[in-house]
Every structure is written in C-alpha cells, then in structure tokens.
Amino acid sequence: MEAHLFVVVDQLHRGASLITDPNERVDLARLSLLAGQKSKVMSSFSSALAFLKAGMNLLSDDDWQCHRALCLDLYTLRAEMEYIMGDFKTMKRHLDQVFLKAKTVQEQLPGYSTLVQAMIAEGSANDAISTGIQVLGLLGEEFPSDLSNSSAREELLLTQKLLSMKTEDELLSLLAMENSEKLNAMKFLNVIANVTAAERRELLELLVCRMIRLSLSYGLCNESAVAFSIYGTLINCHFGDYEGGLQFGKLALAISQKLRATDIICRVHCIVYGFLSNWIQPMQSSLLSLKEAVDIGLAAGDTECAMMSAHLYTGTALYSGIPLGTLYGEMKLYAKQMMEYGQQYTWTYNKPLRQVALNLLGRSADPTKLVGEEMDEDNLLENAEVVGNQALVVSIIYFYKMWLLFLFGEYELAGQMAEKCESESIEEHMVHRFGIVCNHAFYRGLIALVLSRDQDTTKYATIIEKAMEQMKAWASLTAWNCQHKVELLTAECEYYAGNFNDAAIAYDHAAELAAKHRFVHEEALSLERAGIFYLETGNQPVASDYFSRAHDCYMKWGACSKAMHLKKKFL
C-alpha cells in the first residue's frame, strides 16, 4: 500500500463524490494527510498541498469534535505548505482555525512557527518578535522586556565561560536532547533568532545563549547547530575573535552532519559561509556552499533561509569579482524565486545589488544612480520604513552609491555618501558582513586620500588612519581578501606623501595581488589608480599603458559602463 500511496489516494479521490459513509470519508482524509506528509518529505510541496486540500474537502465542521487531531494536522500542515508556496493570505485563514481549535501550546506551536516565518517574509519583524516572545513564555522560556546591551553582554560572557570548560570533542559528543518541552523551545528559539539578528541584536544574544545552555544541560538537537553557528558571529563582533568564530561554525557543521539535520543544514551553511568564513578564508571559496544552501533550503521547505542564502551569494559574488553578465543572470533567477516564495523583504533588500550590476553592465541611464529596471533609489529611500529595518536598507543604499560614485570619479559626492554611511552606522548594522564592512572601510579610505589632496588634510587624516589600521588588521587574518587593498591604500598614501618610487611599487603590488587572488575588479581599480598617478606626475606614455590594462580588466569583469568611462576620459 505504502509503495503505491500516491496513486491509490489519487484514484480514491476521483470517486470521492460517491462516498456516503462518514467513516470512509474520514479514512480517505487520513490517507490524504499521509500522502501530504510523504510529499513534504520528498520536497514535493505543491503535491502535498493538493493532497491536503483534497483531504480537508472531505471533512465537515462536526469532524472537529470527533476527529480533532486529524483536522488539526490537516489544517496545520496545509498552512505550512501555503507559507512555503507564498500564499500567506490563505495560510492565515487556516491558522486562525488551528489557534481557535487547539487546546494546548504544543498543538499551537507548529502553527505559530509558520505564522512567525510568514511575518518575517512579509517584513513584519516587530510583530514576529513580539509573537515569538509570547510563545516562548508559554514554553517556559521567559525573557525580560527591558533588555539592555550590558545585560546581553553579561549573558554572553557567562556562556563563553561555560563553553571554555569543554573541548570541541566534548561538545560534539553531547547526548541527544530528549526532553520534549525543551525540544519545542529550541525549535521556536531558532525561528525567532533569525529575525532578531537584524532588528534586536541584544535579544539575539540572549536567545542564542539560552539555546547553548539548553544544549549543554539537555543535550544536542538540530537547532543546537544553528545556535553554535550564530554564537560564532557573536564572538566575532564582540571580541574580534574571527578564528574562534569560524571554529564554532565548523562545530555547527559537524553537529548538523552528526545528527543528519537536513531541516537546518541550509541555515547553518547560510551563517557559516555568509557571515563567518570570509573573515578568514578566500571569499570565492564560500560561493559554492552558499549556492548549495539555496537548493538545500528549497528542498527542505526553508524558503526564508534559502532566499537569504541567495542574497548573500549575490553580494559575495559581486565583491569577489565574478563576471557581471553571468552574475546578473543568477540574480534575476533568484529574484524570481524570492517573489514566488513570498520573500518580499529579501527581494527588496536585494534590489540595490541587482541595480549595481545593471549600472556596471551599462544598462542604466546614469551609472552613479541606483535608478533603472530594478529600483529607484529615491522611492526605496522614501519607503524604507515600510520595507522593514529602515536603517539597514538606507545604509546599504548609501554604501553602493558611495562605491559607484568613487568608481566613476565623482569624488566629492562619494565623500558625501561616505559621511551618510557613517551617520547611518553602517559598520554597526552590517557588523557580521565582511564584504560590506571591509569594502566600506576600503573605499572610505580611498575617497579620503583623493579628497585630502585638494582640501584640508586634517579633516581626512583620522579617516585614512582608521581605514589603514582596519585593513591591515583584516589582512593579518585573510591576506587573500585584503592584502591587495592594503597595497592600494599604501600606494595612495605614498603618492600623497610625495614618495613616488614607493607609490609606483605599491600600485604594482596591488594589481599583481588582486590578479593572483582573482579580484579582477580590484585589479582594474589598482591599474586605473596607477594610471592616474603616472598621468598626474607627468608620465603620459606609462599612464596610457596602465589605463589600457585597466580597461581590459573592466571589460573582463563585464563592467562595460566603467570601461567606456575610462576610455572616454583617459584613452
């Protein structure tokens, strides 16, 4: 029977209108639920939804009295499938029935999990957090309403002390969690942790510390892997322990493999390869894992994390110098999936990336403005509050505008945009995102160096010093990702100081390292800046050679508008 379940259920439903015996209708509804559950396991979510719809159509209101568990399972699973398929309106209608008919928190919990994930997808982060905290309270996991950064840090330090008492092998050898109440709490803590990362970082710290303590006290479960990976990001930003952070990420990967935790592998990969590995390992090395996370997440029904992995992939690929034509094709595919699965927040947050790619490809009227097929910067800035996490959206728009303005030689405007990034506290909002934090410091330093040649030098001295200090510190951790940036900043500093021989050497080192480490866009930038150096110091023939090489690199990257800009201005 089980081998032919789908065929049998389908055939029985063809004759369902002829069933007159109420017990037979209920039996077929049970088979429909079983078929829906098996379809979900097989990642066939549309088929699961079809079976669940058919099963529900066989039931009447009276069945809630006689067969409440069956009705509850059908409605709950159908709502989950509707969330996965992006049909939030119908999902909410069915969840209303679940919450109305359920008698215990345990019966309501799967429904609340689906509801909170839908709230996150729609950009209603505060509602998601509020609902989540209420449910956690019902599960016996209370959190104070008056959180502060100091209390969160204290909790983090206590957790750090507990973890220091165990080796990695001891943590990996913890027994499996069996307490059903704590398992339910861990599942819901995991759901809420994702949204608090952007909205309420002090709450995230408490949630993750609670998950780790529950794991230490009651044993490991799938969600323990997520907790350890997020903990890695916390010790990154609070203690600057990037190597330790990545070690906890690797522990999380090992736990997920040990437990064969297919439902959270996407989330763990997303955190490890989107937020941890790039501080230590070559940026390009994370790209395949992020793409795999998308497929794993979609197969597991974790559309929220799958689409966040897609967003992280496109950003990391852009900063890695991946050819823009190929990358934009992937961006369009992921954007389509984001809309299909109702991940409105991630789709909107990804817009600036897509428009930057279009601008560089030459598919916009003005390459320095985020206006075109994908977005209108003024419109998005005006509606940032509606999108959710206003400060994050605004700061990311300013960051990309700063980058484009510098790239196209609009240094004064780039400087203004860099100041806006600072006023929006971009490094605080994007503290876990190596690509953004690193590039912000890098371009902020370059802009200051260019502007300091014609303006009051004291205004920019601190900015230049900070940029160089940050870049050298990061290069000591990941020379692959940062050493060429250090060399280019050094070249500009030497040029400004009048040390032309040292500047020339540093420009060449920057270009050579960028090429060696496959950052073609920054190889192009280093060659262009070298060309400007030679031009301004009176060596036109050498300058032309550097500009020609820079043009070729920009074309190799696919940045046709920038290549055209360089050719028109210098060649």
From TrEMBL:
Matching InterPro entries: Hybrid_Histidine_Kinase, TPR-like_helical_dom_sf
Ranges in a coiled coil: none
Domain of life: Eukaryota
Name of the featured protein: Anaphase-promoting complex subunit 5
Organism ancestry: Eukaryota, Sar, Stramenopiles, Ochrophyta, Bacillariophyta
